[in-house]
Amino acid sequence: MTDFAATKAMFDLPDGVIYLDGNSLGPLPRAARRRVDEMIAREWGEMLITGWNKAGWMAMPMRLGERIGRLIGAEPGHTVLGDTLSIKVYQALASALEMVPGRRVVLSDSGNFPTDLYMAQGLLESLGRGHELRVVAPGDVAASITEEVAVVMLTEVDYATGRKHDMAALTARARAVGALTVWDLAHSAGALPVDVSGAGADFAVGCTYKYLNGGPGAPAFIYVAPRHADRVRPALSGWLGHEAPFAFDPDYRPGAGIERMRVGTPPVLQMTALAAALDVWDMADMADVRAKSAELTEMFMAGVAADCRDLHIVTPRRPEARGSQVSLRFEHGYAAMQALIAHGVIGDFRAPDIMRFGFTPLYIGESEVQGALTILREVIAGRLWDRPEFKVRSAVT
Amino acid sequence: MTDFAATKAMFDLPDGVIYLDGNSLGPLPRAARRRVDEMIAREWGEMLITGWNKAGWMAMPMRLGERIGRLIGAEPGHTVLGDTLSIKVYQALASALEMVPGRRVVLSDSGNFPTDLYMAQGLLESLGRGHELRVVAPGDVAASITEEVAVVMLTEVDYATGRKHDMAALTARARAVGALTVWDLAHSAGALPVDVSGAGADFAVGCTYKYLNGGPGAPAFIYVAPRHADRVRPALSGWLGHEAPFAFDPDYRPGAGIERMRVGTPPVLQMTALAAALDVWDMADMADVRAKSAELTEMFMAGVAADCRDLHIVTPRRPEARGSQVSLRFEHGYAAMQALIAHGVIGDFRAPDIMRFGFTPLYIGESEVQGALTILREVIAGRLWDRPEFKVRSAVT
To answer: Residues B150-160: pLDDT tens digits?
Structure first.
């Protein structure tokens, strides 16, 4: 049984704040500060260039990828860290499309995170071979997986609503018609049990700064199914994915398996913070995290339903149909979220009218949920969202 | 006049080491350690998600890009940070190729860094439109810039030999035949005066962990000439290059100018270290750095020529024809470099037989050059490279 008091003690959380935005940026694991400082002083400062070998920097993308692979049900040795999630979406989609050369449709849904759609649009326009990015409503995805489809590209948990796709069922459907799948696990990894291997996913990508708590701008990860790993062409074919990076051959030859999906020099400071963050996961059982998340999200939704009738709950009430967040639609959502933040409850706002709250059992429990509900009731009942100071939009929200 | 004693004092250099590998990984700027620690504790730890606005994280790619732009002669507002150099090479080349749709040749040379060639190979294969990557000898580049050529893609200073191209002349030649240029400044930025604007370069990219001292895995940068900035299609079209990233539109619309070359969430820890590293450059005049670099490299080559006849100097002796490194060809180069490192002189080795030494006036002076020569003489004259302990190759060199 996961000891959530112990995991909470591993984070440095500011006093007087209820942090319900770990689905956007996880808080600071206490050990990360010390570990990064030691890496800077003892490794960069003292080992200098030799740190790539001596301190194991060069091996970190595979070593940390392995630890993330465990959290998403990947076969050992088939997950690697690198780049940003946008880049990894591009790489996975470009690689996948080449494996289904006769088809021209990339299927996605309107619940996908915009950057996934943007990267796909950019790729398809570059290719210039008449591919179509077909974006359907989330509920229409299953029926839209036809033999026209080359690649099904989906985010398992909708960033805006928290609705969760059935990864196993959709992947099976895709395989049945000969399409490949690219799953974005941005709101799944660290939020709920994922089983890329069991589901038969072809490619999966995700980020590490949300539920995995790797810090702002922590690198992304990519998984390629073992059946493809040694035959996929990485599209973004960089020197660290080369069979022998330090041979400095003029011609690219892909490395073995997932190593070929590496591209350029990895960000050692960010990876060091992430390594500390992953230590927390060594103490957690994902089934416990999921069970607790279901309780906390239900508790929050029940409170909202009872006392905040103006807020429309857009997240599914059936626990198996949602991730680890609750989204509320409210016309004055932006100002209401600013009022909440001013009163110490940090969630976020997604245009045009969604208030988002992430529930992360590693450091959020029932008392935080009740505390957040109390303040939410005050903000809504007191119409605090109507105060002018909460209506000023900042450039970045 | 640049005070090199003052700039040297801004670095934390280990005792007993002569560090001649700042062309591969710059050493630790003293302020970086404190600045990253404060960022982790005060920004990530206390501001949490609000750090993107409050601490200015989201603006860092443009703000730091501006500071780098000053060092490479870019027009203000046309340089931005992000991703790795491999990714930025890909993005620049993909964008450039679309602007010259009728031509099918990408011209590069055998002195280009392999990852540039690999990324180009990957891109051209993805495009599948019959583009040819034509790789000629460095001395044949000028004559090879013909009207067949769509894009000339070169690294200004050869990573292996230190030979420097004439950027202005080659760019002019490319423009004269209607070809575009993509310049890789990995071994130029912070090493010598660069004038992308004066040269008329179309695209330039570079990394920040070599002469700019941003730390292992620090992000890359990209410059796009103002005449192209508002019409280029970024190819890697991510959400942070969108006109309105937080509108969460399903369709990509490029942002203004260089902002569109941004892709995903930027690495805040790495950028914070880089910001501290760039403070050193506020105290340095690039003309002084270049003059001192020419002296130091000449002093080193003269010493080698006089006393180490077995070592073949492959770096040009004319100062205007080289960057800020000296490369020596030696059959036993790998073992000799290991012996040097064991005796406190850190350079590096590049297959098959190149010993590289970087000379970085910000923290390397004449006494270090003389010290390195003394030890190099001992290693060569004493045949220390013949000892078995120096012959064992590590996986990463």
So the answer is: 999 999 999 99
Q: Which residues of A touch B36 (CB under 8 A)?
A: 36-37, 40, 269
Q: How much is the ipTM here?
A: 0.97
Report in angstroms the alpha-carbon separations of A362 from A21, A26, A60, A242, A301: 13, 10, 24, 38, 20
How many residues are listed for chain A in this entry?
Answer: 397
The pLDDT tens digits of the residues spanning B85-135 come to 999 999 999 999 999 999 999 999 999 999 999 999 999 999 999 999 999
Whether the Cβ atoms of residue B268 and residue B39 lie closer than 8 Å to each other: yes
Contact list, B87 vs chain A (CB under 8 Å): 83, 87, 236, 238, 263-264
Task: Please state the φ and ψ torsions of residue A36, each to the nearest 5 degrees.
Answer: -65, -40
Judge contact between A257 and A229, C-beta under 8 A.
yes
Tokens of A119: 């990267």
Residue of B nearest to A48 (CA): B27
Phi–psi pair at B78, nearest 5 degrees:
-125, 20
Residue among B100, B113, B91, B108 nearest B235 (CA): B91
Q: Residue B225 to residues B48, B165, B202, B243: CA-CA distances in angstroms?
A: 36, 20, 5, 19
Cα first-last separation, chain B: 37
What six digits make up the tokens of B267?
């690495």
Instruction: Please state, in angstroms and rounded to a whole number, the distance separating the CA atoms of residues A162 and A312.
Output: 14
Domains of chain A: 33-281 (3.40.640.10), 285-390 (3.90.1150.10)
Which residues are within 8 A (CB) of B26 and not within 5 positions of it... i.e. 6 or more apart? Answer: B209, B210, B211, B212, B213, B214, B215, B277, B360
Helix or strand holding residue B265 (H, E): none
Distance CA B383, CA B346 (A): 18
Residue A94 contacts B where some CB pair is shorter than 8 Å: yes
Say which of A28, A83, A238 has its CB closest to residue B44. Answer: A28
Cα separation of A55 and A39, whole Å?
9
Check residue B190 and give left, alpha or beta (phi > 0: left; psi -120 to 50: alpha). left
Helices (H), B200-247: 226-229
Q: Which residue of B has its CA nearest to A41?
A: B33
